[in-house]
Amino acid sequence: MNSIARLKELSAEIFDFQNITSLLAWDQEVYMPQGAVNDRSSQLSRMSGLVHGKQTSQELGDLLKKAHDELDGYFEHDRALVRVMQRAYDMSTKLPAEFVTEFTQLTSRSVHAWVDARKKSDFSLFAPFLEKVVQMTKKQTELLGYKEHPYDALLDLYEEGLTTADVERVFDEIKQPLIELLPLVEKNWTSSLAPHDPIAVEAQKEFVRELVTSIGYDFNRGRMDVAPHPFMERFGHDDRRITNRYDEKDIGGALFGSMHESGHAMYEQGIGTDIAGSALDSGVSLGMHESQSRMWENMIGRSKEFWEFSFPKLQKAFPSQFGKMTSEDFYRRINHVRASLIRTESDEVTYNLHILIRFEIEKALIEGTVAVKDLPELWNAKYKEYLGVDVPNDAQGVLQDIHWSHGSIGYFPTYTLGNLAAAQIWRKYQEVDPGYVDTLRKGEFSKIREWLRANMYQYGSVYQPKELIRRVTGEDVQSKYLVEYLRGKYLKGTTC
Ligand code: MG
User: pTM here?
Assistant: First the structure.
């Protein structure tokens, strides 16, 4: 048997074991009784160990070496499979087992400390843990290796090939335009949707199910359940599920959360059957994934025309809440813009400023140019400078996100990359469908989804993120499309 045939077998095996592990994790979030938490932790850790063993096996290492020698004779998809499997192998083998164990123990204590510190709104309780997390993360960058900047090693964990220089370039380009745009927009987009008269959860579920079906989420190969945090999870080529959460006084959360997760899931449901069940059967990176969740949630799902089509349905379903509202009024409310303290509650205009602050702080931490103890002061100063808001306490400031306690440094920039790519891909779609405004008005969303499937989704992880965006749009990631999109939408009232 040649190397690639055996690599495909191993890839299929790992894919199945990963999916089984995901099913256990999904069940824990969705159905599992709380009392079973110890059983499930033990099961999950055994499964992770099993997957890790397969991903780091001597056999796999040897096969990958051989495959590299044979690469020139391979088909494109097979070369891609070697690339993706090598990447997973490197990530799992570059860090010694003792390092991984120590880091896991540290972050699990660190999460507890973060929860406690946030509850008491006291950063000093979390600071000693974060100091250790930063120390170990610096060590991790040396173990993983990098060319120019240690932070590159961290970015690459989440977004293959992304560098600090790339992120600096895009933030340099959007920082000033966003800071200038915010006060202009904020004064005109003042009304919000919630709170409205309560809508029963069951009725919301029914509406949301129809909504995401209309944009193309396939319930024959997926399902939607309730969980404390919305997410998408894969259990196999034909099983991509989403979760959603509901608030009786704010249907917006369910509407846009479900479109966001459907965007993630439709990307994966669109992956070609030719790469089904292999390491390529997955969206290629967090940034590319987020481009699809954001595009469906925001560019499409918060457009005026989308609601010209969908608002009458909402009115019919909930006449006492929306019967007297116009589609235009609804549109303005779901696009409410306000500089706020909390990233997860922020809007399209301010979101990337929240990310910029985290990026600047993370980079300084890894470079060692800021001390952990000084973070609250630095955080608050940046919120004042970029968003014009005063941070009243640590809980609503530097302690708001769980990511650093998990040791996930380098993750945040993928959100902004996703937003930029979303605007760029959406712009490309407008070029190929100049009647896109009517496409939205008529609810012909399958036309958009089919174009995305043919040009992007079907490839899964075949192309690296940078190559994928070039293939879809003809150029590297640019910031100007997002800025133009935001200016058009919020200042000129156009769908662009
Ligand atoms: Mg997402």
Answer: 0.96
